[in-house]
Design goal:
- The longest helix has 20 residues.
- The chain has a single domain, classed as Jelly Rolls (Sandwich), CATH 2.60.120.
- The strands form three sheets. It has a five-stranded mixed beta sheet with strand order 1-3-11-8-13, with no helix packed on it.
- It is globular and about 50 Å long.
- The chain is of the alpha+beta class.
- It has seven helices and 14 strands.
């Protein structure tokens, strides 16, 4: 087994704010000003991102909020076709999540192919790796999104009686040589102090994601030279997590730059986001 490829990396966190939340209203300010307001909260910190290769089996969704799963998917060759993604790759990924979590029902609400591109249109569509520490939701944001994913109120009320997970399945389309994805072991977070709710008020409603402040005790991990068959499954909401006083755990993650890899081929990946109902 090769030696772990730990990396000293600059990760972009948010500064600790007086409040554990920041609302940015895109209906009252120009988008450029809204983005500038959020960028003003950024701060870079040097963090040791440890290579988990060889230790993958020691980490799982329940205790750490993430796990790596060997899952071969030859169907990835057709990822360029939208219909193929929706009709083949998404259902196969949902089946994997049901197997891992024990969920009886899964509903995918987003999928995206990411690549680092000089095409500004692609960058604007968030297809470049996201270099900021975040979670896709806060607990409030996840439940808000559930309203649009499961619009029938009676159906949603019944689902809320059980456990609800928001799961992100991330995998490369070829061996990752740059901009890998790092995840934070959620057992090393202080939830009441580290997570900052970032609510964005939009013309059609609001979305709330999690931003995070740096803490020395946080442990960050990635899988060096991750392959397409090495799927990363991580939790973006857990309504009944044992690790949080009030449930609603969400996992911070970010792309990061490994020193001396900036000229290597761009990373290409696919992520599929879904609700899983237990």
């Amino acid at each position: 087994m090769s030696q772990p490829k730990n990396a000293e990396a600059e990760l972009v966190f948010w500064k600790r704010l007086e409040s554990q939340s920041m609302e940015v209203d895109f209906t009252k300010m120009a988008p450029e000003r809204c983005m500038a307001t959020m960028i003003e909260a950024d701060e870079s910190r040097t963090v040791l991102v440890q290579d988990i290769r060889g230790k993958e089996a020691q980490y799982n969704l329940k205790l750490n909020g993430f796990q790596y799963v060997w899952h071969d998917m030859p169907e990835l060759e057709g990822v360029a076709e939208q219909s193929h993604v929706e009709n083949v790759i998404v259902p196969k990924t949902e089946a994997l999540v049901r197997q891992i979590t024990g969920a009886t029902r899964t509903v995918t609400f987003a999928h995206r192919v990411r690549c680092l591109s000089e095409d500004e249109a692609l960058l604007a569509n968030n297809r470049a790796p996201a270099h900021s520490v975040h979670s896709d939701f806060t607990p409030a944001g996840a439940l808000r999104n559930l309203e649009s994913v499961v619009p029938d109120a009676a159906d949603r009320e019944e689902l809320l009686k059980g456990r609800i997970l928001a799961i992100n399945v991330w995998r490369p389309l070829k061996t990752v040589q740059r901009d890998p994805l790092a995840v934070c072991d959620w057992a090393t977070l202080n939830w009441q102090e580290d997570r900052i709710a970032n609510r964005m008020v939009l013309p059609h409603g609001w979305h709330e994601l999690g931003k995070y402040a740096f803490r020395e005790s946080q442990e960050w991990w990635y899988l060096s030279e991750q392959q397409p068959q090495e799927a990363l499954i991580f939790t973006q909401f857990d309504s009944e997590s044992e690790q949080a006083d009030e449930g609603g755990m969400t996992l911070p993650h970010t792309a990061f730059v490994v020193p001396e890899t900036e000229t290597l081929p761009a990373r290409e990946s696919i992520e599929i986001k879904m609700f899983a109902f237990l």
